[in-house]
Amino acid sequence: MDLIYDVAVIGAGVTGSFIARELSKYELDICVLEKEEDVGLGASSANSGIVHAGFDAEPGSLKARLNVCGNEMMEQIAKELEVPFIRNGSLVIAFSEEDMDKIKELYQRGLANGVEDMQIVDSLRLREVEPNITENAVGALYASTAGIICPYELTLSAMENAVANGAVLMCGCEVRGITKENAGFRIFTTRGEIEARHIVNAAGVYSDSVSSMVGETDFSITPRKGEYLLMDKTQGKTVNSVIFQVPSKMGKGILVSPTVDGNLLIGPSATDIEDRSDDSTSRGGLNQVIQGALKSVPSINTREVITSFAGIRATPSTGDFIIEEHSRVKGFINVAGIESPGLTSAPAIAVMVTGILGKCGLKLEVKSSFNPHRSHIKRFSELNESEKMQAIKANPGYGHVVCRCEKVTEGEIIDAIRRPTGARSLDGVKRRTRAGMGRCQGGFCTPRIAELLSRELGIPMEEVTKMGGNSRILIGRTK
User: Fold this and answer.
1) How much of the chain, in percent, has pLDDT values that exceed 90?
2) For the chain, how many structural domains are there in total?
3) Is 352 inside any structural domain?
4) Cα 150 from chain centroid?
5) Domain check: are 129 and 226 in the same one?
6) Among positive and negative, which fits the CA dihedral 453, 455, 457, 458?
């Protein structure tokens, strides 16, 4: 262990990825330790992908400040990382006069938080904006600054940019223990020992466990499961905006939203659980999602569901984001309880954490070679005919369509595998290219993608996994 890292970030979700990207702007040695086989496999890949306006959080809280700041940053970041981002606005629907009182409270809270361009609309105006909204809606709060983004592409692109600027990503690297030493910390992982002068704990639902490795922790995390249903693109234009219901103590309720890729997303449910790895879905949870969505938009065709999934939110005992140096361990920064609006807040959280590290003695010398730009994987389906011909001429792989539902080509899949933080599994390819995300959910393209992974990674087909670990899909050859 000759190298002592200046900062070790534990966790490669959206928060950890943006922290790594922000730190890569400086002359620092940074490593990111992720226990899973890829980036963003926790809540960062299983959430609604909403860029919240910021009216929901309690004024004066970290959630309120960082949400509004992150929302303001998102447009520029999306351009730099070439991630699709649409400001389509959000509506919080009221079904009664009592709900309208809560809408007015949210409006005042938004003003206190510094949210711009909000208005309370009546039922007539609401139906002009959203013709398919329920007739039972009596009004709504409209916030034009809300938007939609692809959560896993945002996370992957931030980490890819961090690695391109010198950060070291170690996947399959689970932290098992930490000791405080004179030079900083010794971290014991499944890939050996690592030394770092500072640690940033961005371990999501496991952040309280990681914090306890350096002493008693001042907070606890409750895993809260949220189940979602994704609809086919035939349903993508059912609504124009992000449709919320009046929030409760369990969250923002069942939402109905278009996605940046043209699908329709409904969810999540909200159930506190004990098993932090339980991302299964249930009939009861999904029925709750369907009934909640139909309450807002009755015309949704629930027969057009193409997949379901669940994410686990890290709900903190404090009720707010926890972003601070450990009260008893210098140089150990907790970034915990980053539940909604964590995705929106991530870029702003990264700036805040970097400032805390600076106050801890980390020398922040700006790196002149830092490049904020990342080029996205070329999507063949979005090119015009001339561009398609040029792409095929430059790389014949773009002439071979592998995923027919999403029109993803061999060229795109190979690019996804060969990138700095490239795909290593079928799900890794899916998140980067959408191959397997269409109506048939990989029914036709999976064998061909497995062949490409086998060839590009230099491994037998039998070792190709769905999502890393022991998730192999083949046991042998028949001929």
Assistant:
1) 93
2) 2
3) no
4) 7
5) yes
6) positive
How far lies 119's CA from each of 93, 107, 136, 141, 293, in Å? 13, 8, 20, 6, 23
**Tokens at 10, concatenated:** 């534990």
Predicted confidence at residue 216, as pLDDT, reads: 81
- What tokens were used for 154? 């945002």
Contact 5, 31 (CB under 8 A): yes
Using CB atoms within 10 Å of the CB of residue 395, give its burial: 0 to 12 exposed, 13 to 18 middle, 19+ buried: middle
Q: Taking residues 339-349, what's their average pLDDT?
A: 98
pLDDT digits (tens, 9 = 90+) for 65-124: 999 999 999 999 999 999 999 999 999 999 999 999 999 999 999 999 999 999 999 999
Return the CA Rg of the chain.
Answer: 22
Cis ω before 59 (30° cut-off from 0): no
- Whole-structure pTM over 0.70, yes or no? yes
pLDDT of residue 248: 72
Q: Are 143 and 256 in the same domain?
A: yes
d(Cα 257, Cα 103) in Å, to the nearest integer?
Answer: 19
- Residue 91 inside a domain? The answer is yes
pLDDT tens column, 24-42: 999 999 999 999 999 999 9
- Catalytic residue list contains 52: yes
Let me know if 26 is exposed, middle or buried by CB neighbors in 10 A (0-12, 13-18, 19+): buried
Q: Is residue 194 part of a domain?
A: no
- DSSP assignment of 21-69: HHHTTBS--EEEEESSSSTT-STTTSS--EE--S-SSPTTSHHHHHHHH
Give yes or no: residues 290 and 417 share one domain.
Answer: no
Is 437 within a domain? yes
Spatial separation of the C-alpha atoms in residues 407 and 384, rounded to whole Å: 13
What CATH number is attached to the domain comprising 445? 1.10.10
For residues 272 and 420, state if they share a domain: no
Identity of the residue numbered 342 = G
Among 52, 326, 373, 400, which one carries the catalytic annotation? 52
